[in-house]
Structures are given as C-alpha cells and as structure tokens.
Amino acid sequence: MNRVTCTIDGQTVTVPEGTALIEAARALGIEIPHFCYHPHLPVAGNCRMCVVEIQGSPKLEIACNTAAREGMAVRTDTEAVRAARRANMEFLLANHPLDCPICDQSGECLLQEYWDAHARHASRLRDPKVTKGKRIDLGDDLVLDQERCIACTRCVRFSETVTRTGDLVLLGRSDHQRIGPATGARITHAYQGCLAEICPVGALTSRSFRFRKRVWWLEEVDSICPGCATGCNVRVCVQDDTVHRILARRNDAVNRSWACDEGRGLYRELAAPERPLLGRVAGRPAAREEALAAAAARLGSARRPGLVLGGQATCEALLALVRLHERALPAARLFHVPGPDPGRRAWSDGILVHADKDPDTRGVRLLATCAGGVEDGEALARALADEALDLLLVLEDDALGRLGIPAAPGVVALAFHGHRSAAAAEVLVPVAGCWEQDGTYVNAAGRVQRLHRAVRPAGEAVPAYVALHRLGALLGVDLGCSTSEAAAGALAETISGFPREVGPEGVVLPPPLDGGTP
Amino acid sequence: MAPRILTARFGVPGSHTLEVARACGVYADLGRVLRLEAEAIAAQVRASGLRGRGGAGFPTGAKWGFVPPPERRQGRPVHLFANADESEPGTFKDRVLLWHDPHRVIEGTLVAARALCCHRVWIYLRGEFRFLQERIDAALGEARQANLVGPDILGSGFDCEIRTFRGAGAYVCGEESGLLESVEGRRGLPRIKPPYPALVGAFGDPTVVQNVETLANLPWILEHGAQAYRAWGTEASSGTRLFSVSGPVRRPGVYELPLGTPFRELLEGCAGGLRPGRRLLAVLPGGSSTPLLTAEQALGATLDHECLEALGSFLGSGGVIVLDDSVDPVAALANLTRFYAHESCGQCTPCREGCGWMARIAARVAAGEGRQEDLVTLEDLARSLRGRTLCAFGDAAAAPVLSFLETFRPAFLARVRP
Fold first, then answer.
1. How far is CA B365 from CA B127, B260, B369, B415, in A?
2. Integer CA distances (angstroms), B112 to A506, B201, B273, B294, in order
C-alpha cells in the first residue's frame, strides 16, 4: 500500500494513498467541520461544509471527497474557507426552525456548534420560512422533524448500506425536499437508535429520550453492551447515578459506530420492578450479609454441590467462582447452560446482533478450561432429574429457566435479574448489573473488552465477584477478588497471557486464550 | 456559402423517414466509417476541434480520451448516452433536430460508438418528449430492419444497439451524472466527482454523455474530413452550430450558422430583426444560465466561445434569448429565479436553500415589497452559490442574478424602498 505525504495548514502528514483529506487532517488533530461525512457511510459530499483550499486548485474542494496526493498543500484556515463556511451556515440556518429550546439535540447539535465557531451571523431572512412535517412518528423509537433536517442524507445512506432496508428516502426537490419513509410505512428495523445518533441535528430523535434530559448534564462512561456476544462498545450516559441513555462507541473491529435498539434498552433492567434489590432466605427478605451467611452455610454442608457458570457474568465473577470451586468446593460439579433466558429470542442479523444473548460465553469457556472443564445443560437437567445434586449455586444466568425446569431444591442464586432461578432460590443474593461494575467480557470473536462502572449498584446489590469473595471468606478461603483491581489482577495471574490492562478498543487474544472451542 | 451540416434535411417532407433520409445522404458513408479503426475516427474528431453543443463546450475528442481503451476496461462495457434532456430555458434546437432528422442523430451516435468501442447507446429524452420518443423509436425500428442498428451493421462486424429512454421531468437530469442516476432508476441527483463518468458511469461502467447536436456533426466530419470542418468557425470554435432564437423578433426559430458569425447577422439576417417599434435591450446568448450581454455588447459580438467569454459570458446551449425594451428586468429575474428554485435537485446546501431564498426575494422585489438590503442579500447569496455547489447548477442559478443586478441596477434600485 503506497503512502503519500502532504501538508495541511503547514503541518506534514503521511497517510495511505487514497485517504480523504478530512481523515488526513484528523490524523493531525485538525477537525474539519462537516455534517454529511461519516467514516462508516459512503461519501455524499452534499453539505459543502468541509471545503478546503488546495494549492493549484481554482475552486475550494470538499475534503471528504478529495484524496490526499503526494505533495498536496492544503489550508483549512484561509479567508476564502472561512467565508464559505459562514455562507454555508447562513444557508443551513435560513429555513431552520428556532426549536432549540424544545429540541433534544441542543447541546450536541452541529448547527449550534458550527454557528458559534464559524458564523455568528444574525438572520437576514425576510421571507416566511419553509415549513414541513414535525413530530412525525417514524418508528417505535424514532421521531422525525422534517423542518430541522439539513438533508445530509446520513440516515438515507444508513438505510441503504447498513440495514439495507432502503426505508428512508429523500422526497421532493429544492428546498421542499424532505426526508421521509419510502413507502409511507414506519421504520421497523432494529437500528433506530443509530439513526437518531447519526443525525447531526434534531431531525431524527429517540422517542425514549424525548424531553428526558438535557445532554450537558450527562457524563459518558465507556462500557460494553451486555445484550449479546458481539459486545458492542457503548457509552453509558448518566447523571445523578441514573442512566439516561446508551450511545454507541466507535470500534472499527467490533461494531463500527453502531449499536442495536435491543441492547440500547437493556439498561432499563436496572430499575425493573422484579429486580432483586434485597437478599432472600427461605422466602423472607434478608440483608445481603444474612443471605451470604445462609449461602455459605448451605455450601459448607452440601455433599453433592453443583455450580453453574453464567454467560452473563463477568470474567472476574467467573474467576471467583472457579477459585471458590478450587479452594473451597473441589467436589462440586461445574455446569454451563447456554441460553438465552426465557423472554429473550435467540435471533441474529448479519449486522450486529449475535444469536448468543450472553455477553461472556467465551469468558465462561476460558475459565472452564482453567477449571478443567464444565458439563453442559443436558447434564445439569439429568443431574436435577436424578436428584444427583443437593445444592445448586447459579451465577447470574437463569439456569432453571433455560432448562425449562420450574423449580429445584437447594438453589442458591446470585442474580441481577428477577428470573425463575432467582424466584425458586432458597437463598438469593442480589448482584450488580453490568452498568454498576467494572469488569471484563470476552466477545464472540475472542476480544477482551472492559466494562466501566457508570452508576452505583442499587439496593443491596454488589458485583458478583465481591459477593463470591465474601462467600469464600465465610468458607475460610481468600479468593483475592474483593475489589475490581484485585479481581482483574487475579485474572491475569491465573490465566497466563491474559492482559492486566486493556485499552478502550479491547484486545483479541490468540487461541486458546480466546475461549474458542478447542 | 456555409454548409448546412445540421439543417440539411430540415423542411424536406418525410425527412424523418429512412427512405427520404437516405435519399438525402444519411448513412451513405456509414459502412466505410464503421470499418475504420476506432482511433482513426477519434483522431479526426480531435482534429476537427468539435466542442460539445450542450452547454459546457468541452472538446469532444478530449472527452472521449478519458475513457479507458478496451484493453484497460477489465471487461466492462462502455455506454454512450445521447443527451436530449434539453431543458435550458431558451433552447429548443435538440428537439427540432430530432424531430426533423432522427436518422442523422442515430448515425452520429453510431460513429461515436465505433470510436469508443461501445455497443450500447441510449438516447436520453426529457420526460416531456414522448412525441419525440415515438418518432425516434420508429426511426430505430426502420434502422434495425435495414441492418443499420443491431448486430454486424452493414457487414462491418460492428454491433451496436440503440434504445431511447425517457426521464420524468427535471432540468437537472441534463447534468451528465444526474442523467445517469435517472437511467439507473433513481432520482436524478448529480453525483460527486471523482469518480468521473468516463471511468465510473452508468452501472459502474465507463460512460460518455454527449449532446445530440454534437453527435449529429460526426458523420459530416468523417465524410468531409476534419480540415473541412475547421474551414468554418474560428480558431477555438470550429464548424457550425444551431442557435435557438426567441424573443420579440420577427422570425424566432432554429438557425444554423458557422461559429464566429456576428450576432447582428443572426438577429437581423436570420431572425428578421426585432418586431416593429421594439428596441434591443439585452441578450442572453446561450440560455438563461449565461450572463447577459448589453445591447451594445451583443451588437458588437461574434457568436463563438472566445468572444463571448471575453465579454464575461459564454456560448452555452446556443439558446439566444432576445430582450427588448418592453421587458421589465425585475420581473424577468423573478421569473428566472423561480425556474431555478423549482428545478434545484435539493441535494447540496447552497443550491437547495439559496435558490428558493433568491426566488422569494426576487418575487418580493418584483412585487414592490423589497428594500435595498434585499438587493444586497440577493447579490450575496448568488456570490455564495458560485463555485460552492455539488454540480454546475449552482453556477447556472447564480449567473442570471448577478448579471441582471449588474446590468439593470438602476431598475432594481428604483423598485425598492431604501
């Protein structure tokens, strides 16, 4: 692959041949303003905001569709460029409705930002503004405001090339042009959240986020979606210990700039009414410490215990359970029951969604190897039917639900969801959801990715590795997993080659560390 | 005496039929030309200095030179489109040419196709030209029957199929990439370039789009030779072309003249001068997208690329719109801006927002509700359009605004409040 060297604003940069100037500039830390360009969508070149001056070229050129060439000299800061940006902003804002006070995009709107940075003009429009449709119900989580639209066509290109549904199109001509549904029908695909996200203005917005929170109050925490084994990178947006929305986080190797709607909505489980926030012992609510003591007592006296490694648990929790097995319950049988939990459908599309709805199945396999192997769901079903186990500790997954078993004696559940196994448990310990803890998942491609705690665990929940560490202590063993740092360190110690530090893009481990089938 | 290259068969009864066309010499040289090497044809065309007659005036031979030769096409076919979208206000010569002499146009496309090693030709007609499509399809039917279109034309070994295709009514489909989008079944939104159609055109294949008048010149050039063509016209504008003359002249219509002819001759000699009692005010020499010439400029001008460009305008489509002193320039501009506002495809920011805005200001000014600051805004908007749009439509829309404001400033100032 040839590389070319050019200068942008006097700075030199070398990039692969064919790289667009807008990306070459980004490599130098120069952000060229733009609306329609998106690194994961085909180039449209219609917003005309990213114009730059190229030595030797009589006209300004758009940086998104001009490839860097050897010796090219580009300037993004000349008077001509500034004048063009000002004029462009004037055109964009001429008919734009003054919706800022009621528009969800406020605070993260490129029209606002670029007006401030590149225009600062007052309107000289003396004619009525062009009006179009507002508050159009476009999809289950999608609201369209045609007046706010700047016709950048990101949504159209997304519908053509990502979902391949072609259900959003341009209608009409001239300044009466509008974005709208192709056949008048609603959008029904699973990526409506992406449409709201890629829209640079408030034309496409998420109904679930509508009027909910001004974005400048939100802090963003990098994390991973727990919805399936793809492990899309996300940003959890919080204020006051409350999650208000999930945004996609770019990772070119995992999810590009996308996240599916189902995954975006899972954080609502944090406040689900059936979520266990207190422990339970023999049918009565109990404080967590009491529940842990009861669990320890049951485990201590069990002669034929079974432990279920859950694909929804973090690697840290799985490690703690494997250490508990090794150090306190060596006679216990280990199981893994693939899912999904009842209530989730094992569906996939060719885009992001993986049929495995557990985010850490690979983590289970990795830790299972350390433990010397696990038995599968069939084996567990038989063991329960044969009454071969006198205690079953279930870590996070709804093992009973997955096996279709209504109840079983001697269940100790460490659960985030209020699922069947939790309901049937003699002892229930509430554990944190993925948004409430630091942790690690290994996705379906063997990529190790880090979760970061966005909100404090609700009620009496704690991360499962903390609960297991406490269980170990009560059983007289030190599992070394009392904090997230300790647990992460324990992973690196136990699994040779497992990284201690993982950057924001994760890291793919070579087999057998990727947890793939042997 | 200038040759009638393009209008030779105008006025001959039945000239659109194969029998009459052939009797008048159409297709007479085709068998020989199709047996030439492709490069030999291209060389003649280059040497002739023929330039596009659609509006941009790009040298035809050079345009063909952008298409990769057969050995460098990775097996992709080349497509040739004869552009009959003719929507530039003031232009009506392509429809007349196709109506009276469809066989000559067909012959011209075959010559071009041979030069490009192209076997698929489309004649793209604007949506409103259903009557023309019928006539051309009939001509194509005759031509196929006579082994002039289709496989092994006249035993030359050259295959070429020609089809007509009708758009759905948009000026912007005359822009070559807008045309290609239309042909591919999409809305006629021009494409960003690069890539250029010569490399990635219709269906991703190398493509040439050529105005029908341009193509109609080819048989004559090949028959009489490049030098014979160069004997007419000027250094940079060889040959003859069709002029569409409209306005308060005695004889509006389509006239063929050598390039370089004084405008006076077109106006007075061909079109009979202005109607009684009218005085020349200004002229749009090449369609509404070309800057105005004042009466004085026009009467001193010759109709060729060099002279018109020196005067700050250009030859464009040859649509000569004559304005006399009964024209209200403020109303005329309102009319023109409304056209561009209606036809803007809406894709890029400056044109989408600017054309509508300019049209509204111009209408308000024409209605007597304007202020001086509106004229400032209007001029500003037009300047901001020029050179900043995705295709040349932006320049086309800006041209009349800037030109009228400059040429008729007193009239505009008189129409607005301070």
1. 33, 38, 5, 7
2. 57, 17, 38, 38
Give the separation between CA B254 and CA B318, rounded to whole angstroms: 10
Distance of CA B334 to the CA centre of its chain: 24
Q: What is the ipTM of this complex?
A: 0.94
Across the interface, whether the CB atoms of B194 and A45 are under 8 A apart is answered no
Chain B interface, Cβ < 8 Å to A: 170, 187, 189, 192, 194, 341-350, 352-357, 360-361, 364, 371, 373-374, 377, 380, 384, 387-390
- Tokens representing A335 are 């199981």
Parallel/antiparallel/unpaired status of strands B240-246 and A51-54: unpaired
Q: At what angle do helices B38-48 and B102-116 cross, to 10 degrees?
A: 120
Helix, strand, coil shares of chain B, percent, nearest 5, are: 45, 15, 40
Give the closest of B341, B387, B390 to A45, CB-based.
Answer: B390
All residues of chain B having their beta carbon less than 8 Å from the beta carbon of residue A62 are 192
CA torsion sign for A399, A404, A406, A410 is negative
Q: Going along B135-215, which residue ranges are E strands?
A: 161-166, 207-211
pTM for the whole thing? 0.95
**pLDDT computed for residue A510 by the predictor:** 83
Query: Of the candidates B345, B349, B371, which has its C-beta nearest A48's C-beta?
Result: B349
Tell if the CB–CB gap between A51 and B192 is shorter than 8 Å: no
Q: Minimal CA–CA distance to A61: which of A21, A18, A25? A: A21
H/E segment holding residue A375 = none
What pLDDT, on the 0 to 100 scale, is given for residue A294? Answer: 98
A174–B377: do the CB atoms touch at under 8 Å?
no
Q: Which residue of chain B is at minimal alpha-carbon distance from A51?
A: B388
In eight-state DSSP terms, residue B121 is E
Q: Which tens digits make up the pLDDT trace of A132-167? A: 999 999 999 999 999 999 999 999 999 999 999 999
**Phi/psi at A184 (nearest 5 deg)?**
85, -10
Strand order of the sheet with strand A284-286?
A284-286, A279-281, A427-430, A411-415, A391-395, A305-308, A333-335
In this complex, the residue of A51, A90, A126 whose CB is nearest that of residue B374 is A126
- Identify which of A44, A47, A177 has the shortest CB distance to residue B346: A177
Q: Between chains, do B348 and A47 touch, taking CB under 8 Å as contact?
A: yes
Pairwise CA distance, residues B208 & B42, whole Å: 14
A vs B, Cβ pairs < 8 A, gives 99
Pick among A54, A89, A91 to test the B interface (most B CBs inside 10 A): A91
* CB contacts, 8 Å: B199 with chain A: none
**Cα A457 from Cα A396, distance rounded (Å):** 15
CB A32 within 8 A of CB A40: no
Tell me the backbone φ, ψ of residue B338, rounded to 5 degrees. Answer: -65, -40
Kind and range of the H or E run holding B114: helix B102-116
What confidence tier does A471 reach under pLDDT thresholds 50, 70, 90? Answer: very high
Has residue A324 got a pLDDT over 70?
Answer: yes
Residues of B in contact with A127 (CB under 8 A): 357, 360-361, 364
- pLDDT above 90 covers a percentage of chain A that reads 94
Q: What is the Cα Rg of chain A in Å? A: 27
Quick one: how far is CA B306 from the chain centroid? 18
Residue A397's pLDDT band, with cuts at 50, 70 and 90, is very high
In terms of C-beta density within 10 A (0-12 exposed, 13-18 middle, 19 or more buried), how is residue B410 classed?
exposed
Judge whether B306 and B315 are in contact, CB under 8 Å: no
Q: Using CA atoms, how far apart are residues A302 and A252, in angstroms rounded to an integer?
A: 48
Query: Cβ separation of B389 and A48 shorter than 8 Å?
Result: yes
